[in-house]
């Protein structure tokens, strides 16, 4: 196993660690889930950097990296939805996008090996989600109206990335 894939595995392990920290750690340690999420984001950046820098991009990594992104975002959004209604909108948009792309992608491309690698718009969406979710974790008393307003930006990028990835899936299907 190469270093980028190992970092992705670490990120997958951090998913249940984050959920446990969010729900089990005392309220005055609110920063601990934020640190775990930032660590997850750091491993995400590092695995991509090392994969490209040392030419260690693998089909497994191309599959696991976006899976780790999705599981991380899904978990953090679910956790935050429990205490912040504003994040519930993101949850619904995120789940619809991911399920639709998974079903359409699998139906049209027939195999995860034909999956679309991460594109700039997916990366921007992930960064915006990390920023918003970290802000919600670091400032747990943020007014819901402000959180909702801030959530509109990643929500728009989720929708845009859905459209762009759908176009990529259709283009890839036509090439197969």
From TrEMBL:
Pfam families: CDP-OH_P_transf. GO terms for molecular function: CDP-diacylglycerol-glycerol-3-phosphate 3-phosphatidyltransferase activity. It is a multi-pass membrane protein. The chain crosses the membrane at residues 89-108, 120-139, 145-166. GO terms for biological process: glycerophospholipid biosynthetic process. The keyword Transmembrane applies. Keywords: Lipid biosynthesis, Lipid metabolism, Membrane, Phospholipid biosynthesis, Phospholipid metabolism, Transferase, Transmembrane, Transmembrane helix. Signal peptide: none annotated. GO terms for cellular component: membrane. It is found in: Membrane. Belongs to the CDP-alcohol phosphatidyltransferase class-I family. This protein catalyzes the committed step to the synthesis of the acidic phospholipids. This is Phosphatidylglycerophosphate synthase. The lineage of its organism: Bacteria, Bacillati, Bacillota, Clostridia, Eubacteriales.
């Amino acid at each position: 196993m190469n270093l980028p894939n190992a970092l992705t595995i670490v990120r997958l392990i951090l998913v249940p660690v984050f959920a446990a920290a969010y729900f089990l750690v005392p309220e005055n340690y609110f920063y601990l889930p934020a640190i775990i999420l930032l660590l997850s984001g750091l491993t995400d950046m590092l695995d991509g950097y090392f994969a490209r820098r040392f030419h260690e991009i693998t089909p497994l990594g191309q599959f696991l990296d976006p899976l780790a992104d999705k599981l991380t975002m899904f978990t953090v959004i679910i956790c935050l939805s429990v205490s912040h209604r504003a994040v519930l909108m993101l949850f619904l948009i995120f789940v619809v996008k991911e399920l639709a792309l998974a079903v359409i992608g699998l139906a049209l491309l027939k195999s995860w090996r034909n999956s679309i690698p991460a594109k700039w718009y997916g990366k921007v969406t992930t960064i915006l989600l990390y920023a918003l979710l970290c802000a919600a974790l670091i400032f747990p008393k943020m007014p819901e109206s402000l959180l909702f307003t801030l959530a509109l930006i990643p929500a728009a990028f989720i929708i845009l990335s859905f459209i762009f990835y759908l176009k990529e899936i259709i283009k890839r299907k036509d090439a197969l």
